[in-house]
Design a protein that fits this description.
alpha+beta, 6 strands, 2 domains
């Protein structure tokens, strides 16, 4: 949804298209982005970005809010997309191919299983002393530090929660609904405070300020509780 669509939907719900709202479109836009800022810390929808590997990657000018995981692009058999097969070959894959060809024997397979067990143990020890693809994000300086346990890859894929600088960047239907509900609740609270600023005792009619203020506060409290209970932090918070 665009900014205009958010604002028009809220205005229609609060005025029915007949009454005049006390807030201008510019003021409603500020409330909308205040709501976006509020839900940003709860959004756990991730995106992917592949970059050349380095032990320290500059992510200061990217839309990365928090990094959740880092993956190797090249597997045991190399990079299948570029045709680069210079990666580390899986020994079990090689032996399986050899065992079931005419030249393979079960003796060779059993013997190789022992070697593979030793190889697997070596990988465990190596990852214990130096965990592969473990990372640390420096939020202050915009740096991402990545450790390579063994051979250094040519590229890595970063899974991250993005920054949302614009409401149109929110593509998930779930978070669009959450943003709209947050926007509506906060608008009701602001309108309620405006309409209860002064009270008239001699008027033939009364404002609905107290009612709409109570509605907005209740909706906001319920929404914050839903976000708190259902939050899934899949990225480091430090």
């Amino acid at each position: 949804m665009t900014e205009k669509e958010y604002i028009e939907s809220i205005k229609l719900e609060l005025t029915g298209g007949i009454l005049t709202l006390e807030l201008t479109d510019e003021q409603l836009e500020k409330v909308l982005y205040l709501s976006l800022q509020e839900i940003q810390r709860f959004i756990d929808t991730t995106e992917f970005m592949t970059v050349p590997y380095a032990s320290c990657i500059d992510i200061d000018n990217t839309k990365i809010s928090s990094v959740s995981r880092v993956y190797r692009v090249e597997g045991y058999v190399g990079d299948t997309e570029t045709g680069n097969h210079q990666g580390v070959m899986d020994p079990m894959y090689v032996q399986t191919w050899m065992a079931f060809t005419n030249g393979g024997t079960m003796y060779n397979l059993n013997d190789y299983l022992l070697n593979y067990a030793a190889y697997n143990t070596m990988l465990q020890v190596r990852n214990t002393t130096s965990t592969d693809m473990v990372f640390k994000q420096d939020h202050q300086k915009g740096k991402l530090y990545i450790n390579s346990g063994f051979d250094k890859p040519t590229a890595v894929t970063i899974e991250y929660v993005p920054k949302f600088d614009n409401v149109e960047d929110v593509k998930s239907n779930y978070w669009i609904d959450i943003l709209r509900r947050m926007f509506l609740a906060r608008t009701k609270i602001i309108l309620g405070r405006i309409r209860t600023r002064y009270k008239t005792s001699s008027s033939l009619w009364e404002q609905d300020g107290e009612t709409i203020l109570a509605e907005g506060q209740k909706e906001l409290d319920n929404l914050e509780e839903i976000l708190r209970v259902n939050s899934q932090i899949v990225y480091p918070i430090d």
